[in-house]
User: Fold these one by one.
Assistant:
Number 1:
Amino acid sequence: MFSKESQGRTWAAVAVVLTIVLAGVVGLNIVKYTSADAADAADRTESTAAVPELEPDPVPTTRDVVADDSPHVLDIVVSSEDITVSGTAPSSETGEAMRSVVTDLYGVDAAASFTVGESIFPDWYDSYPTVIRQIGFLSEARLEVRSNQTILTGKAPRQRDVDALLKTLSGVRGFPPLELRVTVTNQDTAQVVVARSDSQISVAGEVSSPKAKRILIETIQQGYEDVQVVDALSINTSIGFELNLNAFAQYVVALNSFNKHSTSYNRGHTYAFVSGELSFAPGENELTAESTEIVASLPEFLIKSDLSVRIIGRTDDVGDDRVNTILSIARAKAVADQLLEAGVNAERVIVVGRGERGASGPDASEEERANERGVDIEIGTVI
Amino acid sequence: MRSVFRYRLVRPAIVLLAFVCLTAACSSGGDEPPSTSEAAPTSDPESSDFGGVQIDLDKDLVIGVSIRNLEQSFYQGIESGIRQRAEELGVDVVIIGAGDDSDKQAVTFADLISQGVDGILLTPVDSAAAVDMATRAEASGVPVLAVANQIGSVEEFGDQHIYAGTVGFVTADDVDMGRQAANIVADEVGDGDVAIGILEGSPEDSRTTLRNSGFEEQLAERGVNYEIAATVNGNWNAADGAEACTRLLGAAPTIDVLFSMSDEMTSGCLGELPEFQLANTDIVSIGGTATGLELLVENKIVGTVCEKPATMGALALESLIIAIRTGQLDQGLLFYQTPKATVADADVCNPQW
């Protein structure tokens, strides 16, 4: 693994050499990483900043620097509007599963094909879905993985998008040395807010192109056949293109069992707040059959998206504060247990007890109190 | 409490916040009647609107962290989780260890406030003494979130308590850890009769009570016909665990299951006793430490429950930052998952301490 001490020293040496080489060849506008030690981003930033200013040369093409001509384990090309993925899979079944990961995330913008061949990195297939998702944040990008060399080129709107992808790659045991030539653009990216009430779903915000807008609206409309879609999207061609906006549309569709939710895409983050439908009788912490059915729609989406989820239990303000906190935890656990039993990764499930915090107070109506006795679900994160 | 973030009150945000609050009774306590005419929000490129929550992702944050004892592996795990998450989120952290000295912690905590940090994560040395720290921070407008150990004594406030005016409390769910240990036992013994010896932590520690209650509740729920043959206090450490284990087997030499509440006590017990004495006993532990996992792989125990201090630290930092960036300064009681690890699925637990 990259994190092994012995390989870390090798990486460090590679890092020094490639930093020097790339400083001369590529110029300052290219972020240079060679180490897989993603835990040391601060040091990397400092070393990049310390490189003396040079006259930028034309960025060499990937082919100029590829010494390894073995078959691609993986080759991902992200253009301004689509993604093409090819590579090697250990079996046709695995290849089909890998193809599905791409098309499920990116829909009509995706093309993927795999040939059957030797499995070089045993751990690779666990990390593959995350890599496919994370590279969607980059534009004009290419990730080439061969048996002895990995090259990543392209543009990223934010440094952390690069760091996240590197961290995933560094987690693959035996992964080959990495050359990284990515420009961080610090460009604003799409911001979209989708709000669903019972009767309509509104889609507002900014996207980069008419095509992005069309796909977003059409995907959501197809997923909410009987719900009116209100299009309040505008186009801002100065913001960056993100392939993950298509994945976001799929996420919105995956929440169609919920009659009320607010789902956002902001600077690469997907965040959904589902509320008002998982309610409980006073003092109770067992899900109703209807709530159980609604929750049952989530695991497939959560497993596929790899997003974290916070299950937030709430109570009204009747009774003791401490008892209410414990009751709220029990309500959240009822939902969390259902997700965990369905195979959602425990690492990504957080149980929260808010108790009566946020309750309306002593003058609340019975209807308000009924709304307060519930479980909310946050998917993804706002930060 | 001081507002530590910038609101940009734009129309879409107001509309969406109203939408979310009306449908969810959200934590800001909206109580307007439901509306059926939610206007579609309009686009505003200046907005940092995020599904109805106003956030400021650009503000640079500095988070102070006051940790009980950086010499102990558990707290080192918390520290590493905080550092890693801080790096991922682009947040600066100032981490200070208190060396298990409550007075020192009070002084260094006050220093963090003086430095103008945007929020503080606190693992108190002394829960009762931490009340003064939390009060001072609140007066200074600095949000505080408790990690691992609560603010406010268990005697006065009960366990799993969120001290008023703080953002919340991130910890492991001790009841659930007891339940997971019981699940390991139930999977091993089925519904047969079973005599159980318990090697518990110090009896005045609420973790002991909570783990015991979860353990017995779940055994009953799983239909295990059990008898607690003996309970001894191993005081959470290896040396006392070894001594307590000898006492336990003296009192109940034929137990079928030994439930130890920490891997450290388990390790002490196994190191002290000749192997044959526990040859017919299934040992179930809590910790998920490197030591515990080693014992598991060597088939010396049948399972351990996976505590994850680094995960807890990361969750704490993330939750405090969410609170600061969104202004929702009441995050509540937060638990991460502590799954059981057995010989068959030891890899579910990647040891963090």
Note: Chain A touches chain B through 71 residues (CB under 8 Å).
Number 2:
Amino acid sequence: MSGWLGPDEWQAVALSLKVSFWATLLSLPFGLMCALALARGRFVGRDVLNWLVHLPLVLPPVVTGYLLLLTFGRQGPIGSVLDDLFGITLAFQWTGAALAASIMAFPLMVRAMRLAIEAVDPRLEEAAATLGASRIKVFSTVTLPLILPGIIAGAVLAFAKAMGEFGATITFVSNIPGETRTVPSAIYAFLQVPGGESSAIRLVVVAVGIAIAALVLSEWLSRRVAQRISGS
Amino acid sequence: MSLSVDIRRSLGGFDLNASFDAPEGVTVLFGKSGSGKTSVVKSVAGLVAPDQGKVSLNGRVLFDAAAGTNVAVHKRRLGYVFQDSRLFPHLSVQDNLCYAARVSGRGSTDPKDVAALLGIAHLLDRRTHALSGGEAQRVAIGRALLSEPDMLLMDEPLASLDGPRKAEILPYLETLRRETGLSILYVTHNMAEVARLATHIVLIDEGHVVRSGAPEELLTDPDMVRLLGIRDAGAVLSATVAGHHPDGLTSLSISAGQILLPTVEAPIGANIRVRILAQDVILARSRPEGLSALNILPVRVLAVRRGEGPGVVVQLQAGDDRLLARITRRSADTLNIVEGAECFAVMKSVAVSQTDIAVGLQTGL
């Protein structure tokens, strides 16, 4: 594949894969917690949480990116703390790209997980409790196995979304080759220079391929969750 | 070994106020649908919390509103068999049975013994969706038994099954009671199940316990007929198999003499229980002759209850047992059937259906 793609293109694909991988992995536990809270929780502020989770879906990505820059930039309230205490800088780093991608992909991840959780029959969990399972055991032996395909589907969708993230990423971490130039940023950059079309086309093919693969995988996993819950 | 319940709960205009004791044996919580039976069982299991009151099992307090005690569901050690079997769809039959051992470490009972007891040994490798309703329910019972509960709660376990499937499971429940000696709180609104399984009955109506007592006493009380349902009213007698006849009949000894019934699948000497419906009993003032009905017992009238319709319910003393007969008011007047009258109860052998005969209950009433 590196023979077909030029070194710059390959660098962008590899960076995108790295950024998306970490964005997905690190948002998984938070996504699951949010999905559980939204599907099962009865608490004040549930609507606010729902709204916050879905916000990146409706905000212009450039707004999300700018808000990230204001918050996580070196002078930002969280960014300055991270910098002073841990020496972690997110702005204009690949880690910042991962943060932007995870936030933009978060609503899709939570949505897929939440649907899977809502499809679980709570009466099965009651039955598990009467058989001596504590709440944690009920979750790990009944709820989690039943929603696992939904969690994986959510992760796949989030990964695909992270691969395609552009607006928030370029606003927050710019478009630095080898550091923050992901596939969409690279396509954008190639289109700005004369003779860059062929590189852009090759990256478009890669992006389309990954997106289709993710959709097919996610569909297949969603069907699995339905089958698993109905037992067929 | 006994369960003591005294709970109050208000929910959406429905007031539940139930107080009863369930002694050792099979206590049947009987009542119409919507009478609050399931709320009682759920409160005992801890799936819902009553507003006030107390629940204790063998002196162990499970719930006490005044003291703020509410033992978690998984620590109550009560097996629960639901109306819908609620098997885990992602687990095989074997893994469903072993679930309690996996999550709580209780597991000295061999799943194979329980599977054999319930006739599900051949299903262990199956997925749960491949089971029939009756099989699924037996697996659910096995799964509850293997959690080694102090008491088994069964909430209309046969209600979702059709007639033949019910008949398939009832003998297993009788065997269960006999083999394990486990106390059971059994919810139903089916009179045949009451007659076959109950050693104690708690009658519940509109959220209140109306009566509780032994089946032979409660089921033959003419005042209870309205609550039990006139078509289902009938006595439960304990009987001993006295002999099998080549013409397909079985003789049974009861306290008032012998009766003949269609073949009962039990050895001579076995104690069984037979339910005799009030509407299958005919009364005669003198011993009838030239009659096709084979069973004629001398009885004395204990009470006559007139309802609003054309029928009356007559409570009869037959030996040490009591019977109920349902006859028309006109017959009662013509034959002068009043308290203390000596007469004969006539009953067709074939009137007693196999589903009204409990052979698994060796301990008797």
Note: The interface with chain B takes residues 121, 123-124, 126-134, 137-138, 141-142, 145-146, 228-232 of chain A (CB under 8 Å).
Number 3:
Amino acid sequence: MKKFMTIISLMLFSLLVLTACGQSPDKTTDEKTSQNSGAGAVEAKGVLLMSTTTSTQDTGLLDYLAPIFLKDTGWKLQWTAVGTGQALKMGQDGNVDIVLCHAKASEEAFVEKGYGVKRYPVMFNDFVVVGPAQPIEANKDIHTVFDQINSQQLAFISRGDDSGTDKAEKAIWASLKIDPKTNENYMKSGQGMGDTLAMASEKKAYCFADRGTWLKIKNDSTVKVDLNIICEGDALLKNQYGVIAVNPQKYPTINNQAANDFINWICSDRVQKLIAQYGIDKYGQALFTPNAGTNS
Amino acid sequence: MDIINEAMRIFTDAGIGDAVRVTLAMALASVTISAFLGIALGILLEQCHFPGKRILIRINHTLLGIPPVVVGLLVYLLLMRNGPLGAFALLFTIKGMVLAQIIIITPIITSMVYSYAFTTAPAVRAFAVTMGASKWQTQILTIKEMKYEIYFAIVTGFGRAISEVGSVMLVGGNIEGRTRTMTTAISMLKSQGIYTEGVTLGVLLLVFAFILQWAAESFQKRELENENY
């Protein structure tokens, strides 16, 4: 028994030593980074917590905007990227200060129920339908494409995760009065856009995607993505982003000041121009078109 | 009554019934195959002596700690359309998921069976030899002597199979009604902010674990009682 205790205490001691060893290099790097940021950027006066959709993160837009926001306003932007459904839910529960997502109807309902102050349109990008080159020929009419997918029972992978993209896809099926579930090869992945596109490529299936994620996956995937754009440019494929400050009357502890600063900042002409330029150098085309101040 | 109605509605609406079916089919298939492989390997490993045996045991122990997502990734790359086994079209099917599960569960059963065999088998063999048993009779006696330990190894394997999420998400793809298991459904529901149905599935998983454990225990108890007569 005594021997056992000795072994245990020895183990605990060595664990302690190991963790101590592990920590010391971290500390020095921490100091270094804080020195670096102190030399270059403004000291953050607080944190703005945002819930947003995966597309703003996956396209790298927020990584591009956050340092500029910090420099201009002094707020450090931190975000959690989830589906639009959950992004709004996080706002509803008062877990974030601001929501940036793309499902206009849900966003308006969010404001109507008093969870958000007001919805401001920020920018849009568009959706595309991608898939194998055969049997559907590329064209500009989403109705023809969806109609053919359904009537020929072609494999189609839907997000099926209640995200903004998923809602947009469902709305198009509904406007066509087609029940996609009548297609035996209509599948729901329940996963993010990137995973779903990879699955579509593997299964030679059609897929409804936002252009930003599509370009990124097509460019960056180590495995060749075997899909082409089948449909783009239809008015129904427009994807509008909106930003909403969470209502401070419901949740007094949230950082409403920073949220308002963010809205004014992102809707300003200068930042709108920055958004219009984003992605041109890397993908040869802009990923978002700014349209703050319009009625979208 | 409302709670029961609500539970029934969730069960049929959200494809939870399908998720349960997929989970059980996958777990049963992978545990059956892993059990045969694991028991055979464990017993052989104890009986045969060859150079490199210690390394083999080391490798098996290492595999016990392999993160399932890593297995998932490797199996995904294997089964990809352009991968080595792409021609079989197993990606995003239950068969593909079973393959990943076998890689995860077999080392667990192997090592459990091996360590039991290591302590009990030599005595059993010595006894069998003095009784003049043939080679096959000896083998069967060894397995019979370890049957509780083998039940336990299989139950452990089954527990791993129904609770696995990482590799199953990667290889299965979480396709509704086809490869969506209870665990991947929970993870998906959480990401959508739907907690009620996630909790329902979680409770169901716990119920399964309980039934399994209870069945194994009562089986063992009955056997013990029989032996005591």
Note: The mean pLDDT of chain B is 88.
Number 4:
Amino acid sequence: MAHIIDDETIEYVGILAKLELDDDEKEAAKKDMGRMLDYIDKLNELDTDGVEPMSHVFPVYNVFREDVVINGDDRDQILKNAPESKDGAFKVPKTVE
Amino acid sequence: MTASEILSLTAVQLGKKIKEGEVTSPEAVKAVLGQIKAMEPELNSYVTIDEEGALKQAEEIQKRIESGELTGPLAGVPAAVKDNICMEGLKTTCSSKILSDFVPTYNAKAVENLKQAGAVIIGKTNMDEFAMGSTTETSAFGVTRNPWNPEHVPGGSSGGSCAAVAAAECFFALGSDTGGSIRQPASFCGVTGLKPTYGTISRYGLIAYGSSLDQIGPVAKDVTDCAAILEVLASHDGMDSTSVQREDYEFTRYLTGEVKGLKVGIPADYMGEGLEPEVKEAVLKAAKVLEEKGAVVETFDLGMVEYAIPAYYVIASAEASSNLSRFDGVKYGYRAKEYTGLHGMYKKSRSEGFGPEVKRRIMLGSFVLSSGYYDAYYLKALKTKALIKKAFDEAFSKYDVILGPAAPTTAPRLGESLSDPLKMYLGDIYTISVNLAGLPGLSVPFGTDEKGLPIGVQLIADCFQEKNILRAGFAVEQSRTYKMPSLAAKAMREKEEK
């Protein structure tokens, strides 16, 4: 079955992905995604009833440690990578009116 | 020793000569920097070269070797690190515009382990953007070219690491492998690449792509080097919750050449349609070598092979869409110049900062995780992953090693692959299932095709059984001599003549 990705879906996925695509990119993405999903549909040939989904090959556990500070004060170094900072904090556009 | 004599050595050979006082670490670094100057205009293996830092490190390390403080096999040896692995104070870009100015404030655990062993890190290697790609053509900093023929790709995503090792621009390099990103470029560049069992090398400081699949691993000139580097890199690390406490951390002891009684299976499903005849021939020849040395070789049906790629692209894209959400123009990286509001800033920064392949995978990943599609795609892929693991479990109840090709073809020409992503993805068919099942895989160069491009054979073992592929890989390697691309050898000769 061929997947047709409509404008609404691409718009919605763009919101989830936090990506802004121009019209050409949107058209390309519709075609790309449709084609990928057609290919991924191959998995439907498999009978997976009763199969446990496997996220990790080995069991994953929470790793705990004592709640003590182990890193030094590297705030200024870290902030050097920020596009904008002010008074020792990351600066972002106004979020609440 | 002359520069070209130094550059012809493997990492372990060089480490030994430094220890014996025949050559010093600064001399080795200067030889490598000379080779880099000669090769880089053609190859572009590196994103960042830390000439000054490397020489300074080498002077220090040389003193510590002479004082007897550093005694390991890699002490003083110049190495390179893929540009998705963090190094304190050195730009780490993931070959993406969005991270083009990012300078980490800490070292990845793998880098820390290398430094402790006295390796000299000379720079960061080029890659496909965020390790998404099979050709190193999606880098924001230009393509890397194959040292065997610059009209061809080096493979990817660790294409810079593999090209650099092949062209003697370093003695070994770190790569990362999510779906074949060490083994496939190693095969295209005629070098040896190892992806260890998931959890063996800490991912702390590796910029994540598909966290359940990512593993760091060595790229080197031979199996001996790979085993020695793995011994240095492998450790249990509390900073990576998926790091595994292994029973064995010794790998070089299995390099005996002894394979008598080793049970080797060749999956019939790896040897059929789509495989280039010359690659197939190389695999059969490697099988013959193992057989002559006493291994038992059989063909068998592995099963599930055709389902690995669709399952992989669902899982890897889903994890990528989540992992890459951290790039939002706030804490690090690129921020768009013009935008309206916070969300506009996020969207603009990401859209201008990411390249097309990365956007493609983030979109697909967001889709398969969205409500209404999660069960049909994401859960289905995780169930498929369980079945793939089961197929391998059955195979490893009969065989110690699975032998097959690393890639269906030798290196394609530049520009051939990106036009059809689906076709490019199909090139990962022999490597991808190894990541899904968490297994160790080794790519060993074994001959060239009629165009003179290297062919790699792949050896796969059960989880934690690196010893079996190292044993078999070492035996296969003994039957051929290491060849350097003529381009790299020529650059070395010309320097000498001057």
Note: The helical segments of chain A are 7-17, 23-40, 75-79.
